[in-house]
## 1
Amino acid sequence: MKLITAIIKPFKLDEVKSALREAGVEGMTVTEVRGFGRQGGHTETYRGTEYQIDFVPKVKVEIVTDESAVDRVVELLTDAARSGKIGDGKIWVTGVESIVRIRTGESGSSAI
Amino acid sequence: MKLITAIIKPFKLDEVKSALREAGVEGMTVTEVRGFGRQGGHTETYRGTEYQIDFVPKVKVEIVTDESAVDRVVELLTDAARSGKIGDGKIWVTGVESIVRIRTGESGSSAI
Amino acid sequence: MKLITAIIKPFKLDEVKSALREAGVEGMTVTEVRGFGRQGGHTETYRGTEYQIDFVPKVKVEIVTDESAVDRVVELLTDAARSGKIGDGKIWVTGVESIVRIRTGESGSSAI
Amino acid sequence: MEEPVQSGNVAWVLVSAALVLFMTPGLAFFYGGMDRTRNVLNMLMMNFYCVLVIPVLWVLVGYTLSYGPSAVGNDFIGNFDAFMLKGIGIADGGMGLATIAYLGMFAAITPALISGAVADRMKFSAWAIFVPVWSLLVYVPVFKWVFGGWLGQRGSLDFAGGTAIHVNAGIAALAAVLVLGKRRGWPQEGHPPHSMPLVMIGTGILWFGWFGFNAGSALGANGQAAQAFMNTFLAAAAAGLAWVVVEWLRDGHPTNLGVASGIVAGLVAITPAAGFVSGAAPIWIGLIAGVVCCYAVRLKTRFGYDDALDVVGVHFVGGLVGSLLIGFFANPGFFGAGHREGLFYGGNLRLLGEQLLANGVAIVWSFCMTFAIMMALKKTIGVRVEAEAEATGLDLALHSETAYHGGGLH
Amino acid sequence: MEEPVQSGNVAWVLVSAALVLFMTPGLAFFYGGMDRTRNVLNMLMMNFYCVLVIPVLWVLVGYTLSYGPSAVGNDFIGNFDAFMLKGIGIADGGMGLATIAYLGMFAAITPALISGAVADRMKFSAWAIFVPVWSLLVYVPVFKWVFGGWLGQRGSLDFAGGTAIHVNAGIAALAAVLVLGKRRGWPQEGHPPHSMPLVMIGTGILWFGWFGFNAGSALGANGQAAQAFMNTFLAAAAAGLAWVVVEWLRDGHPTNLGVASGIVAGLVAITPAAGFVSGAAPIWIGLIAGVVCCYAVRLKTRFGYDDALDVVGVHFVGGLVGSLLIGFFANPGFFGAGHREGLFYGGNLRLLGEQLLANGVAIVWSFCMTFAIMMALKKTIGVRVEAEAEATGLDLALHSETAYHGGGLH
Amino acid sequence: MEEPVQSGNVAWVLVSAALVLFMTPGLAFFYGGMDRTRNVLNMLMMNFYCVLVIPVLWVLVGYTLSYGPSAVGNDFIGNFDAFMLKGIGIADGGMGLATIAYLGMFAAITPALISGAVADRMKFSAWAIFVPVWSLLVYVPVFKWVFGGWLGQRGSLDFAGGTAIHVNAGIAALAAVLVLGKRRGWPQEGHPPHSMPLVMIGTGILWFGWFGFNAGSALGANGQAAQAFMNTFLAAAAAGLAWVVVEWLRDGHPTNLGVASGIVAGLVAITPAAGFVSGAAPIWIGLIAGVVCCYAVRLKTRFGYDDALDVVGVHFVGGLVGSLLIGFFANPGFFGAGHREGLFYGGNLRLLGEQLLANGVAIVWSFCMTFAIMMALKKTIGVRVEAEAEATGLDLALHSETAYHGGGLH
Ligand SMILES: Nc1ncnc2c1ncn2[C@@H]1O[C@H](COP(=O)(O)OP(=O)(O)O)[C@@H](O)[C@H]1O
Ligand SMILES: Nc1ncnc2c1ncn2[C@@H]1O[C@H](COP(=O)(O)OP(=O)(O)O)[C@@H](O)[C@H]1O
Ligand SMILES: Nc1ncnc2c1ncn2[C@@H]1O[C@H](COP(=O)(O)OP(=O)(O)O)[C@@H](O)[C@H]1O
């Protein structure tokens, strides 16, 4: 099993969710995060003083999935999350050694 | 070393914490997240219009632990976080290659 | 590729960011989290009743990086995040199997 | 016998003016709480901007054109005789100046009402021009016609601005959003209120301030003020109750936003009637407005106009309901004039007819002029922010600010 | 010599009525801020609901039964002569209507006080019935007895509702939570306030509004009003100071919630006494109430009743303290009647005795009736939400709403 | 002919007093919203503390020393004759007590203004002592000299506290931060406001309350009150407009914090002048103050004093601007005295000279005394929190509280 972690732009979350749902992904966990990257931050101005805000809002999406589905899910994610502008984010994949569904205690693929 | 990641229902956090503490787990990191899964979301109603909220509040608990303790911790977590209703969440385990305690620079098991 | 995860004290974030930026790290993702550890929590008092707050605010910093850079980044992180007091946090490293830049579809090192 | 000015009357008008000033921030919070986090500051600023630019405009020209001495006896519009308050002194014990300040508060909040409709997508530069222009070309004449001008003289009634303010701003909101267009994603994507407590803070302030709005319109601490006060109390309560009951029966849940919306709908509806009805009438007006507006806020999805925070459904519909109900509930006890009884007090259809006429005129004028102003802005500086700004939020794009900076990352 | 009505008096009563209306939202924020995020809207709604249902009930029957013309000369309860304000006009210059509206605000906020005790676990449907029933069966008679009825006639004093409102609602809160039971997990699990700034917004509004509550009870802008105003100012300040000093010495930290609680305790305590004491008395009353209530909020854990936000500790205890201190501090300068001086002004124990009696009667009646109403609700529709709703939050379960929708996920 | 007291005047002073009381919470939210999450409760508490300790101090000794009967005819300071309101009754219809309460509100908010400068680093114990000591040694004498004392008698004008309150507190803020030192990391690290909506709630309350502050200073509901009311309305609007326009042109963005700051700057500037100017003068004063203060808030980075929330730039500078502009705009229509016309009304430089003198005296006294008080505190109990508390937040370290407990972790 693998854990796919995607850092995306917040306003892309709905599209990502729909794309994944249609492709049969039944679960995911999302977190509000802040990203620092090539996109750069922005400035805000309070009483004439500029504040450099380096961290911009992003959303992290985590999906545990069977090895076999990884490529397809990554592709779907890439497509749904792409706006083509800098700061669209990253997707990375890490290995998962085991997984348990708390409610039932099931483990392995059936727990996903 | 392993990283145990659990997605649980927020109101179970206290029980989970107590269970882990009693079992000698001395550290963990928790994050407010939102989950999408079989549990489904809920609707909210504003001025008569229903809004489908697909992402429900969850808490993510991360624990780095020695390989030897993994099974026990997962078991404890599963027990403490279970309410028996859909949406109780998942626990997954991934490998950790190294760990450092910032304060002392210690690494390996003694850094946990 | 590796994923470096650091749990640090919130007020150290600026120093960590500057140190990493100077060292050429071009991206990272940060999350507000709460930590439970040896540091212990604190109490708050409302109408004379003490509330034990076990989870203290921390910031999680995640950096995907080439294997070759891991040691240096961990060292930089350790130095920048250290205050010397209990609760400075941990840094752990896990393996990353692949990474994609959403905007371009690039993968591998060039996607970081 | 000429009575000396009573300090109690001056005190009451001053207090009422302060209360109405407080309503614009209240409205800002009511709307701002319903908005999304990324646009809340733009919403607050659209509202606060009205109390910056309108007061100056009002004392310069608004007052003299609509309510000043020169406007008396003039059916359509006043002249510039009292430009910048020329000739207005304090020898009258302050009543004149107090009244002008009081009416300035009304002038300020009226365009602010429109902000709720154009939320989330209007350029602030366009809004900055729209507000004073709209105030001069729409608010000032309609206000004049209704209070003391030809519509009022014919016999229509508007106590505290049902026609001149709520119907007027409500229909202008419709015209504005027709020019402006829908928000991207609307109506598929919904946006729940980012802070209901902020909505309720706004609601509390609005109700509190509305006592000044309505009871202050008696321009004295007298029987009519007390009656208007009581009516404002009862209509808001009854409308809130009605809205919540409809929700409970229809949707299965009584909601806070329903309470807030019902209260505001009741306040809007009683505004034109507050000094003219008595007894159980305000309760009936409130109940009717609560039910009607609770359904009217759904018209936008049926007809496809994106009135973001329901200015049409609450202010236009509520104001119209209240204004027409005067034709039924007006109690002759409150004025001498012959034909001004409502149908339920032995009157004939004449009063109702006048109410229809006055509102009809206000609607046509306001809709057309607002449409024209918005079109002119659209053709020149543009009225709509860029797609990117709309997606990422107006606060940052237009105001270089973010509403909240919480937590450990700051 | 019959004096013509002074517009200043009408103005002051109208302003005071608006101020008291504003207190209910203020109370909602004070309580709502202390509550947890998942229950805050239920708390706000319990409060706002009171100002929806009670105004209508008050003008229909509440007023005529308790304070209307028919109630005069009647020791126990009025009749229905002034049903729906029948016969109440504005020929008196508005004083009558203004007073009825003003008293309607008191009727509305009194049951709202109880909401703080039953927080986090009461069915909204039960609350929706409880409020009007309690108002009719408990508030109306106690109000009548204390003001103009048999208890007042015997010689007990209550200026602005210490007995009739705070002791009454405070003891009702105790009865209500005894029937309702404890929140799951209480007292082991504590719940710090979800938003202290919201608590402080509520506190600010409450203090501001309380000037209307107390000084308005003079029903005119006169010397007694000014004295009541000054006393309200001083007692709140002194009590806030006292509470914070106790905290600082006892717990090591002066807290904002202590400031807020102390201010409210002082306001409650001065309420019955505001028009009857002078000089340094309000400071003493404030200091005593601040210290006593700061300890009284701990009684709930000792005795095991789950009064979530300390309605008993602050309103019951504070109201009782203030009411009994009248027996000591009442200044005969404020009334002609013979035996109404407090002990410190050369009086005997008679006034203190009357205060004890009046409060005793109010306590017994309110406790028993409230217990009975709650038991009746429990046996019929039930008073408690389901365990799941309690665990996941009342806002979503009962109102289909969530207080905050922040950040990038919306 | 002795006129009987008019209830309208008493009503207006009572309302104004309530409005000014409400301003301190308003100020707390204005400042608290600008602060960071971890320090907001300390900021709220510094403000609320002022309305706990000062009222008691004011009636004990403040009033008798500065404004009481004994202070009349005494150029420098009163005596203790009216200690604890001795001899103050209600036979005058309440005007005396109402006025004392009203002035007590001013005494309370003045030190609160200073809290914005010392934000984020001052020990609360030091603040707890600073406030009453500063009030006695700085506020009371300056207030006395300006109103009825030697400065006022010489001919300087201050309607509602431009010199006595804003210049006084503003320069004290400078002295205080010079002793206190900069926040760690300032000015490199900036801290955007943690909650702009809270700032705007504060702004709304401040403007609302300021009508009481300024128009109430006429101590009656009369022509001067109405003029002061109108001026308060116009100056705030004009200054808000000016600030926003400068921002828009200079920084490219009109901001909410600019609106809020401009409004407050305008309110500050019109305070000394409110009852003395008319016509377009308040608009000019507002425009000038808006522009000047918008630049003045940058002085702190140039000169390196850490005035966290710009008390110097807004209150000192705004107050001074308004006070000096009296020398130009004072309208002789408002008083009989010979030499009190401003330059633009045919006056000579004498009035301007008196304004300069009065402000100069206030500045020197306030700066030196504040510096001395702060140094004394520094040498004894210390004025600054420990580095760790500053880094992790004052709320937890000093008050054992946290402002917000949201989300699923509580
Ligand atoms: N090395 C990295 N490790 C972890 N997260 C990263 C890294 N680089 C970028 N990110 C995340 O991806 C987001 C987008 O990256 P950025 O460099 O701005 O643009 P792009 O995705 O177009 O390359 C960042 O805001 C950050 O959250
Ligand atoms: N494939 C997945 N990857 C990551 N997180 C998941 C996945 N499936 C479920 N989750 C998380 O687990 C939570 C519970 O899952 P759900 O399917 O609703 O019920 P259950 O845990 O009973 O199977 C979800 O809300 C989500 O946060
Ligand atoms: N075993 C663990 N797994 C995950 N996170 C941990 C673990 N132990 C500690 N942490 C995180 O590191 C933070 C600091 O740990 P703590 O034990 O308090 O001090 P120190 O870092 O000095 O050892 C904790 O607040 C928590 O967020």
## 2
Amino acid sequence: MVQMTMAKALGAGLRAAMRDDPRVLLLGEDIGTLGGVFRVTDGLLGEFGAARVIDTPLAESGIVGAAVGLAFRGYRPVVEIQFDGFIYPAFDQIVSQVAKLHYRTRGSVRMPLTIRVPWGGGIGAAEHHSESPEAYFVHTAGLRVVAVSNPADAFVMLRQAIASDDPVVFFEPKRLYQGKGEVELDRPLADARPMGLATVVRAGRDVTLVAYGAMVRTALDAATAADDEGVSLEVIDLRSLSPLDHATVDASVRRTGRLVVVHEAPREAGLAAEVITGVAERCFDALRSAPVRITGHDLPYPPAKTEQHFLPDLDRILDGVDRALGRPNSMTGMAP
Amino acid sequence: MVQMTMAKALGAGLRAAMRDDPRVLLLGEDIGTLGGVFRVTDGLLGEFGAARVIDTPLAESGIVGAAVGLAFRGYRPVVEIQFDGFIYPAFDQIVSQVAKLHYRTRGSVRMPLTIRVPWGGGIGAAEHHSESPEAYFVHTAGLRVVAVSNPADAFVMLRQAIASDDPVVFFEPKRLYQGKGEVELDRPLADARPMGLATVVRAGRDVTLVAYGAMVRTALDAATAADDEGVSLEVIDLRSLSPLDHATVDASVRRTGRLVVVHEAPREAGLAAEVITGVAERCFDALRSAPVRITGHDLPYPPAKTEQHFLPDLDRILDGVDRALGRPNSMTGMAP
Amino acid sequence: MLSPQQTTADPALAGALRMLAPDGTRHPCPELDRWVADVTPEQLRLMHRDMVATRRIDREGVALQRQGELGLWAPAEGQEGVQIGTAHALRRDDFAFVSYREHGVAYARGARIVDFISIWRAEEHSSYNPFDIGVSNPQIIIGAQTLHAVGYAMGIQRDALRAAPGARADQASVAYFGDGASSQGDVHEAMVFAASFAAPVVFVCSNNQWAISEPVALQSRTPIVQRAAGYGIPARRVDGNDPLVCLAAMREALHRARTGGGPGFIEAVTYRIGPHTTSDDPTRYRPAEEVDAWRRRDPITRLEAHLRSMGELSDAQASDVAAFGDRVAAEMRAACLSMGTKAPLAIFDDVYAQPHSGVEREREEYRAYLSGFEDGEVL
Amino acid sequence: MLSPQQTTADPALAGALRMLAPDGTRHPCPELDRWVADVTPEQLRLMHRDMVATRRIDREGVALQRQGELGLWAPAEGQEGVQIGTAHALRRDDFAFVSYREHGVAYARGARIVDFISIWRAEEHSSYNPFDIGVSNPQIIIGAQTLHAVGYAMGIQRDALRAAPGARADQASVAYFGDGASSQGDVHEAMVFAASFAAPVVFVCSNNQWAISEPVALQSRTPIVQRAAGYGIPARRVDGNDPLVCLAAMREALHRARTGGGPGFIEAVTYRIGPHTTSDDPTRYRPAEEVDAWRRRDPITRLEAHLRSMGELSDAQASDVAAFGDRVAAEMRAACLSMGTKAPLAIFDDVYAQPHSGVEREREEYRAYLSGFEDGEVL
Ligand SMILES: Cc1ncc(C[n+]2csc(CCOP(=O)(O)OP(=O)(O)O)c2C)c(N)n1
Ligand SMILES: Cc1ncc(C[n+]2csc(CCOP(=O)(O)OP(=O)(O)O)c2C)c(N)n1
Ligand SMILES: [Mg+2]
Ligand SMILES: [Mg+2]
């Protein structure tokens, strides 16, 4: 066990994957000499050379499209999209090619791409640098989508994503990059929790609180705060956004009967709707109160000086918990 | 009142909008001489000339980006994306520019674009020609999204979309293009039902069936069939997908207590999840059974020869209605 | 008299290199002659046969569509020269990324006749295993495949480096695309990447004058070949209805790619004789005379005349080829008429390479749903 | 001796036209001289003053960021020549679409000092009303604005046609972008559209040698200016640190655009003296000597030397300009320090131009939520 930041854990994950498999290579903007704008790939150019750590021209569709061609040739490309908001120029290649090629070719062509996305807000960044586009990819069949919330998962799940024969869109919360945690560098990948499973990160009785990415920490903080008031929250870190680990969520809701789902992304047709609907479909009778969403608003991400009013925080989550528990809350008395 | 196909009604809508306002112009591939691959723009080049009916180079990002520039200059561009599956190359311009420019500029720059999308499956088409990408746009704040289900709405709502000072993604079900219906060509736009409202297209007591686009017809057929079995379905045509007309849906569910939502698009993080979650949030106590989704599967759209197994049809809807009513259905006995 | 390089008075062909005139006469082409100096009559006859087969496949495709047996067909008629000419320059271990119209490339690379059916009958999104014949599945998203070709070429380079440091790739990939596609951002980015990495890829732009109803002048005011210089990519403009010059230009570009010279670009000036697809009605946007003029430049007639002028195609040989074409067409029809539709639950196959709880769940749900039907649909 | 056209031995500047040498000497430039024949010393002094002001704004931006007053700053130092040179060629009724680094363009077009604060302080996504100064809001998505410039130019054409059939546009739009941006598909599509519609738009590529840590050679093996010929767009490569030649090339291109000659392209070879942004550490990827070499080509020093050599800038005038710069910087600092953050509920403003039930609902919910706080946050 070593303590390291998530950025370093991701770098270590890349290094391990590249050492294990010569077909793994990296493509992206500024990932070579600079080591990436978040320094995740720092040192990798030196160790693996320019043939495997590829600074590309400034063109995201080009990066993903070239990675598709490399996958045709048997490589396992790991693409870095510099910031969440710059994934959209590559959207066509991701949705029409990466996601569909295996299906289109009846399994002849595999697309073991990993698309790393520094992701989300809370870092005081400029416009287009705080996007949460995960729902677009969850809605796209043929992709797997994961989101990490701590250095240990970052290290393991990145290697799992790279080892996956399917394309994985890999979301890395930017505001956790410098947060530290324990990482087991030597544990065999085979022993790790499968990438597709959620984790109950805190057991509780009264309300199930589902989160992912940076919101997991906020949810845990909320759980601690709720504890002081005698409310016991069970916090689930989804980890895999597609497929969703229904079993873990359902089991929790069947016990608590109440559900709050948290994410940074805007609410409308976001992932919380999927989690809630799945629960409503499968555990309707277990639900004791209306499920609650605590999410970003349905706005373009606002200027950073106001982002705290966009992002769910501890207080907003606790307000949602109150709602789920039928206790007085900010919406008490509002027309539905 | 005249009878016309939806394709002709849309053409008439464009013609009316262009006659009313010289700032309205059309951009797209093959919309000029050819009149569009679905002939929606047939005759408009002749009437309005090449300065207003613009055959563009083959580049969707270019089309939308140029339309943005035209909007900067005060025009109201109507863009035709040739087929649903070709909107993805324009995704960045739509999501990062069209949707955000008004917000970014604090209202200085308006984006009265209409993006017409021939949409959905059921026409035996090749790959990428049967996509249902609406959820991507519903999840994108700053856009309005509508879907039409009949010639009358097509004629009116297209003009409303063009008249809107906000960008509208306008979905036209391809398989209804040749279907006929009554259209009131002379009714003033001001008298029309607002674009943002849903319509109860069939009143009923037992189950609320929410659909949009081509699925409205299928839902109505299902309602007729259910009637024979003594089950009364209330069918709602959403029409506006963003914003959603919650009031109409809620009022219905409060009466029926049961909800089935239908769409062609894949299920995961699709629009049905949003509709259901909204109802669960607002009308939890009114819901008498688990809400039901009848949707496309979470697959890339399959080859057309098998598309009937992908697309919701009357029988699948009735099966879902049975589920909502707690009657024996295909999932009876399955583990949840 | 036209100079050898100058192909015709038609501005569409301005500056295009040519070896075979429409009447089959061989003209010298100093720029490219050396690349076909070793071509034997036997090789030309093979090209001729593949062109004839391609045309028969194409016509049968149209016929089958008209008869309701296929959902759609994208006719390649008139473009056999560039397709077979360039494909014959490829080696087994090269890899071509094609669009929906490159039937000739797939055929020449060994696609089975049945492979032309399932996709156009909409039974499958594609049929062959691309690694069997070194040809990608036909791409419908305009231009997207050009980036795949570049990435593949980057893989070729990296394979060589892995085999031996400093080693050079000895294979190439090809990106086939149309004049309309040249406007897409992806094609630009492909050229940027190819140039930046000196990737062993050849861009073949089949400029057939039309993108559905849009004339090439709408995409480009200048010959498309001029784009290449902007990236520093060596380029040739050739008469795409002359299979020999297409072979030559392709050999030149492939040789360069295989010897570390980086990418190449070929604009093959040709014409789409048929409609864009069987859904299209070209009479709405182009005059019959234009089509007629291009029919007179037919690539098959041209190669045939050339072979005959050399005494290398006897009447007997010609009728053998025709008979071969008939057999191909018959095989195609038979394959089409006997093709069934896969079982419903097969739509859930191959979404992912590894087990996926979501798809598995949906498959089970749909299985249960189907099993409720009395008529017992086969699962 | 270098020929007038050839600017320097530095390959980065190969083929770039130049009027003012780094020491301020005026060299003839036969290609472009006539476009600046009428330029008066007074005009040059105005350019000089705008350049100085731009630099002071820029340095103050960096300083304010370092002091925690701004979230970020993208330094333009070293690029004042191309920014002010081209901007001074514009007319009030032209319209420029800029990236995040074109502070000089916005300044020269009349942006207020406060306009440089709110966006970089992350109080707003942009500050000025673009129609007030004929400059778009700074674009962060690389290359996206080039298409907007083309669409705007198409609008100019259509306005003219609406005014009188057959009439020609007498305005132009400008697309400013960087060397890195030249790789983006959008920039290609912009050039395709511009050429196809002969739109009155000028592309100005500020090739500052770097895209963050990536050298321009990674984007293009050939001078970026060469791309233009591929589309048939007339182009010039100029020394971007020579404000005079930038003015000249821009006047030429604008004149062409305004008289129906269609688009133009300018590659201005310059250098980003500072980091990419204040978040960047350029010592990781480029040697100090390179920066030093370019400092010796400073555009402000150059224009200053030129004016002085003509006796058109006295010490008194120079110190007036310096004092002006100081005032600008002071004004900027004051604007920054006094800027407040908007009320929380203002984040719900302007999502849509017309009422939207979803946003209204969320605003009400959030208002209710905020009102629950005892500390009474201002709404
Ligand atoms: C991204 C995208 N946009 C639009 C289309 C619709 N479309 C199919 S083929 C075609 C024309 C292509 O022209 P060209 O590249 O010249 O190839 P050709 O059909 O002439 O072989 C168009 C517009 C598409 N398939 N993909
Ligand atoms: C689509 C997109 N991809 C990536 C980025 C991140 N990024 C911001 S600036 C920049 C480099 C741009 O270089 P260049 O075009 O040369 O302009 P310069 O910064 O040198 O002025 C990059 C990669 C972005 N803003 N947008
Ligand atoms: Mg074509
Ligand atoms: Mg640059």
